[in-house]
Every structure is written in C-alpha cells, then in structure tokens.
Specification:
Layout: E1 3-4, E2 12-13, E3 27-32, E4 34-35, E5 45-52, E6 62-68, E7 74-79, E8 96-101, E9 111-112, E10 134-136, E11 139-142, E12 332-341, E13 353-354, E14 359-363, E15 368-377, E16 385-395, E17 402-403, E18 410-414, E19 419-427, E20 432-441, E21 454-462
Antiparallel strand pairs: 1-4, 2-3, 3-7, 5-6, 5-8, 8-9, 10-11, 12-21, 13-20, 14-20, 15-19, 15-21, 16-17, 16-18, 16-20
Amino acid sequence: MHMRSLLLFTALMAPLAAQAAGVPSLVAQQGRLLNSDGTAVTVPVTLTFALYNSVAGGTALWTESHNITPDDGYFALQLGSGTAFPAGLWDGSAKYLGLKVGDDAEMSPREAIVAVPYALVANDAIGDIHPSSISVNGAVVVNSTGKWVGATSGLVGATGATGATGATGAVGATGALGATGAVGATGVAGAKGATGTTGATGPTGPTGAVGATGAVGATGVAGAKGATGTTGVTGPTGPTGTVGATGAVGATGVAGAKGATGTTGVTGTTGPTGAVGATGAAGPAGPIGATGPIGPAGAQGLPGATGAKGDTGVTGATGAAGPTGAQGSTGIVATAVFSGLIPSIAGDAKGWVFAGPTATATTTAGQHLTGVAEAPMALASGTTQFARYDLCYQPAAGGTIVNFTGDGYSFGEFTTNRLAWTAAASILPGAGTWNVGFCVQNSDGPIAISNNDFVNGWVQVHN
C-alpha cells in the first residue's frame, strides 16, 4: 500500500498525578492518514514510530509499532505504551519523530518534537531536586557548592535584650564563734531574666518572574457529525399553471373496408355512331430537353486477351524507290541513370507521378529517348488494387508528366507482397531538356502504394 500522510501531530505528556506518584512516561499522538489520491485510509495498517537526534539519517534512539484501524483516516494512540522511553532520552536536546506506514518508506521530513514532551523532566521535582545553582531575579542565592550566598537579612531575627540580674540572696545569721564553721552553701542563683522580644520579620523577597506561556496544544480531532435536523413543514401548494396549448390533430384513421359492389344495371341501347370529326392541325414540336450530364467514367477494364494473328495479306507490288535521304547522325549521344527510394504514392490520383528520383536528358528535334527501369513496390495494407506504370518525361522547368507509350502503358495488380515492376520504352519527344524516370498512375482505388524500395533505371539519348 502506497500512501501519503497529512498528519496533525500532537505530542502531549500525560498530566501529573494528584498523588506523589511518578509522572506517566507516555506521549499522546494523534493524526490523520490519507491515500495518495486524497481519500482517507480506513483499512487496518501498522504504524512504526522512531525518535532520532537528527532531522534526516542517523540511528533511531527508540522505536515502537502500533496496529490501528483509522476512523475516516483519524487515529489517536500513546507512544511509550508498547516500548518504554530510554532513561535520559528527554535530556533537553532536539528530537525528531519519524513515521513509517506498513511497508512504505519512512515519511519525510521527520516531525520536530516541541517543548511539551520535555516536561517529563518535571518528574525530578518530586522529592530531591538536583540543580547546579539557584538564582532569583538574576542574583545567585545558592552557589554550585550548595552554600547560601544571598542576603542574610530576614533569615534570622535580631538578638533579644539581655535579661535583668537576679536579686542577691539574704545574708545568713552569724554562727557562734567556735570552730570555724563550714563555708555556707552558695546562694541560689537569681531567676533567669525574661526572654527578649522576637526580632521583626525580615521583608518579603520580590515576586519571581512569571514563567513563559506554554505552547498552545494541537487542535483536537473534529467531533462527530451532528444529527440531521427534522424535515421542515411542507410549503403551501403553488397556483395551478396555465392550460397548455392544444395538441396537434391526430393522424387520420385507417379507411373503412370497401362496401360491396352493387348489382350491374341493365345495359341501355347503343346510340348511333357519331360522325368522325376533322383531324386537328398538328401542334408545334416541343423544345428539345437539355442534354443530361455525362456520368463518371467507369474504371478501366483489364486489357483484353490478344486476338489471334490474322492471315498474312498478299504482298503488294514493290513501290518505286524514293530518293536517298540525307545522311543522319548515328549512335548513342548520352546516357543518364536514376536511382533512389520510392516515396508513398497516394491513391485516387488521376495523373502520372514519378516513382522516385529522375534523370535529366537533352534532345534535339530528331533524337529519341530510350530507357528501362525497375521499381519494387506494394501496398502497405488492403488486399488488391490495380495501377498503371510506364516510363515518363517532363520538361525540366516543370509541367505535365507524360508517359512514353500513351495508351500502351502497363497495368498491374498490386498487393501487400512487394514485386519488382519493370518498364522499358522509347519516344521522340522533340527538342528540349527533360526529367525522365519510372512513373505510376494510382487512380483505381484509395489505397496508397507505400511498401516500396529503391527504383533503378537508365535513359539514353540517341539518333
């Protein structure tokens, strides 16, 4: 399962217990999972959480997995409930939470842990505390050795006044002179003086600075959808609409069955034949209608079979010998070749087109063009289609392409099997410079002749 997640991360420590028990070492986590198409995940998934010291890479300091079934994508759970956080994890350094859904890679970037989880350190305040020193309003009152170094006023009251001396005891009576009597006992000490008054209470120290406001907790999960309100009272019925237009008259019903034929009446007597009227004059001849358009020419049929050779005619008498003509020039004047790839030849084309490159030849009034060429061609698709092929010439400056043989062109049946089509012919074109090559007239169907190879041919100018 591949999904993307829009997580509403909240990391909330459980509140301090009312008794002196320890702070629960759990972190509340809630959010929402969405598929890559934006729809909520509603099937069971495994979420794997991990804590790191870095936003990317590094070794996990703690991991824990939870199997959940999100409600419209929403989930809520407690981190640390399956695997306890290591001692000293929340040491005040930056921590980052990674999340992995099922077999997916861990989501990126990791979520920075904000201040609230570090309140776990508050557990140290229940019992002995372990500060390195204590300051009030910036002034150190207990130094790093634990010795009080703050002001002493107000710590001990002033020394009370010395009490009054007790009264001297009475002198004992003088004994009879005789032997020296024993020394009398020391008189009882005077009563202790009254305790001095208690010194005045020292002034109250200044109020400590107000701590920074804690971060606002994440927004809770949206509440369930409220119940649908009751259906409102049905409104009054609207006024009656205007009468619609009268519909069209229905079709005429089927005619009733034909009634029975009445009985034939009695034939009356035949009246006398009337006189034949005179023949009327002939009316003028109507105008001749316009000639209708000539219909399109039908496709040319296949060449008919060659007829049987006729009998040889009687040899005619030998004519008188004509005068000897002037001696003409003899031999081949020039030879030119043409070769190259044959492009696609469109269907339903009425004129001749060259199939590939041409050669250039120049003739005088009495010189001939004679050539031969071979062109491998076929249809790229379809079944069969007829086309004409021949050798053609065209003025070098441009103009109409004319085939050598006139109506004597070759007519072939083209298929998707490429065949080598050959043309050989000679013509007396007159004086000029000409483009000469193999040509095709693909006018008997819509399919292009496009399964082609290279044309090869030559043309000679001779007398």
